[in-house]
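Hi U.,

Before I forget, here's the chain from the pilot set. I'm dumping it here mostly so it's searchable later in email.
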Amino acid sequence: MWYFRNKKVILWLSVSSLLYTSGCTTVKIKEGVFSPRDKNYVIKIPGTEKGWEPIQADKEDIALWHKQYKAMIAIISSDIENKGFSLEMLNRHLFLGVAGKKVVSKDSVLVDNQRALRMVLEGEMDNCRLKIDSYVIRIGDKVYDLVCWAPSGSFDHIQGDFENMVMTFQFSHIQESL
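Structure:
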């Protein structure tokens, strides 16, 4: 089924199971801009000068790791079969496996003139208290998840980098089948 669409983001990119390497697969980043092949978007990512390193993980388009703050940013795009899923339902699936969830804020926003659901929440995973910021965007049969998380005590240090990144997210081709 769709809702297991290559993720349970927080589960398979869990902060306590960082078994990723950064040399197995090359991530195409040119002048700080990431433009994945066949994904129809571009985004400017924070670089090594801010402490972010691209890493190899699993099914996401790109993942960035910040060693100092033990933080992660992930962008995941995937196909959905059921266009009836609301942004709320899509968002809930991001946080399966997070215990003790407390929603800090939840807002409908625009990302590159497309409706998105933004949610900031706190929760626990692998005995680590986390703060998570996420945006879920659906266009036609595609869903785009932009997610950032860090231990609660270091989240404020990296949230600005994530927000700046989200502001640069641009669709290079918007499907006409909205």
